[in-house]
Amino acid sequence: MKKNILISFFGPSGSGKSTCYKFAEDYLLKERYTVFHVNVATPLRNIQSYAYKIFGKVNMDPFSQDFKQDGQLLGFLAKHFESHLGQIFREAVENILKQGPDQKIAIINTDCRNNAHNVLEDLGFVFVRMETNAEILSERRKARGDLTPFDHTSSVEQYNNIKEACVIKNNRTLEYLRDNVENVLKNLLN
C-alpha cells in the first residue's frame, strides 16, 4: 500500500532543519521512497543569489553549503511575495503527489513559518518543531556567516502559530539527532 510522507521541520535559523532533512532523506531512500525537498524559501534564495551575483558582491549557489543568507533581503522578498508563493507552492506539492500510483513519495519542507503554515496544513503535512538552546543557535549563525541576520520579530519569520506533532531537541550529537529523526519517521510510517 502506498503511504506518502509529508513532513515539515520548523524552528529558528540554526536549529538543524536542513540537517534533519538530510537524515530523513537517507532513511526514506532506504525505505524505497522518492524524496522531494520543497521549500517556500527556495525561490527567495534563488533571487538573492542572482542579485548578489549580478552586483559581484558574493557568488552564491543557494544549494551549496557555502550559501550565506541575507536575512533582511529574504524577509523583504517573503513579505512581498507572501500572497503569491502559497498558491504556487500548493500547486507544486499537488503535482508531486500526482505521480505514479505505486510510488511511495516523501515530501519534506524545512522552512515553515506562520505565512506558509495554512497551505502546508491543508495539504496534510505533519509539523516537527526543532528546539536548540540559544548558545548553540548563536554559534551556528556565526559559523554560517549570515550576511545580515533574520529579524525574528518580523511577521514573515514567526512560527508561533504552528501546532507541532512532536519536538526534536537538537542540543546533543549528530548521531542523537539522526536517531530522533528516524524515530519520528518510523512513527509516521506505522
Could you please describe the fold and organization of this structure?
It is a single chain. By secondary structure, the protein is of the alpha/beta class. It has a single domain (5-189), classed as Rossmann fold (3-Layer(aba) Sandwich), CATH 3.40.50. The protein has helices at 17-30, 42-54, 71-97, 114-123, 134-144, 174-189, and strands at residues 5-10, 34-38, 105-109, 126-131, 166-169. A 5-stranded parallel sheet has the order 2-3-1-4-5, with helices on both faces. α5 links the parallel β4 and β5.
How many H/I helical runs? 6
Helix content: 40-55%
Quote the distance from N terminus to C terminus. Answer: 12 Å
SS strand fraction: 5-15%
Quaternary state of this entry equals: single chain
